[in-house]
Amino acid sequence: MSIPPDTIHFNQSYLNYHYEWNGFPTILAFVPWIYMLPTLVVTFKITAIYFSTDWDTVEPGKNQHVFLVISLVQISCFLFFLFNYLLVRLPATGLFTSYCAGISPNSWLLVISFLASYTNYLAMVYPFFMPVVRLMILMHPKNHNRINSIMMMITVPFGLIYPICFTFFLFPAIGTCKQLEYPYPFGSIWIYYSGPAFGLRNTPFFLANLSFWLGCSIIANILLFIKIAHAREQLFTQQTSGISYKAQVSITYTTIAMIVFYVTNGLTLLSYYLFYGSHSIMAYTMLARPFGNDAQACLVSWIFYRTHPVFKKNTDTGLMFERRVATA
């Protein structure tokens, strides 16, 4: 098969490459595990609450669909981190440079590129449904469970199918290894693709989707906060337990944190699109982009875990509901 241009395959310089300490690329591959491993444990605890709770029993501070959405968001974020790590951070160390140079472009490399893109879209889609679920709770307090159950039956498969609409052009492509451009040193590579359908690229689709879902999330959150302000007297009466109030505050912080992902990812992606490969100082945002991607996984998990009363061992469970008040 012909070798795509601008790749390292069977290039003698890369075939002879031997790993040596290459500075910041190796550091950037090591540092994320310091915070991602503890975050993975927290994500597991959040998801375990969803699967271990008897949702037919009313408990202060717990809502089935809120926990489902947060679990979906965090699982998709971690998967995106993992495949993006295999796409850029790990190859950039140079550990596999000689190996990649000695093999032909192949479909296995494409699988990594495809899954990195696919999970990125999952991480964009699911956060939007957090404020939507809470809006349903406030707007339909008597039958929000039925409405949200129907919505989740549509949302979960929608999230799984939606990314295909923006990754379909990768199906006829082939995975390749390429040298990372400035400011990465020689031998730092990443996994890319060649021969996509219609010559399409990922970046414009990413930017368009980030803008769209950011706009939708901001609108949904504005409507939610307006609704909360109007319903405050009904929500925060003496009949609402302290646990429920703390849960509502926790979920509000968590919802806001989800927006951070769109902003940080969007800014770094735009800068990468405009300046990558140039010797502009803005090219260094290529280094910061993965950490912007990590922000949602870490911020959302830890804010929710540290503020939600369900995770506090010393929660005052003596306060009782005098009436059922849904956690919005």
Automatic annotation (TrEMBL):
<keyword id="KW-0812">Transmembrane</keyword>
<feature type="transmembrane region" description="Helical">
    <location>
        <begin position="210"/>
        <end position="230"/>
    </location>
</feature>
<feature type="transmembrane region" description="Helical">
    <location>
        <begin position="150"/>
        <end position="174"/>
    </location>
</feature>
<feature type="transmembrane region" description="Helical">
    <location>
        <begin position="251"/>
        <end position="275"/>
    </location>
</feature>
<feature type="transmembrane region" description="Helical">
    <location>
        <begin position="33"/>
        <end position="53"/>
    </location>
</feature>
<keyword id="KW-0472">Membrane</keyword>
<protein>
    <submittedName>
        <fullName>CRE-SRU-1 protein</fullName>
    </submittedName>
</protein>
<dbReference type="Pfam" id="PF10322">
    <property type="entry name" value="7TM_GPCR_Sru"/>
</dbReference>
<feature type="transmembrane region" description="Helical">
    <location>
        <begin position="108"/>
        <end position="129"/>
    </location>
</feature>
<dbReference type="InterPro" id="IPR003839">
    <property type="entry name" value="7TM_GPCR_serpentine_rcpt_Sru"/>
</dbReference>
<feature type="transmembrane region" description="Helical">
    <location>
        <begin position="65"/>
        <end position="88"/>
    </location>
</feature>
<keyword id="KW-1133">Transmembrane helix</keyword>
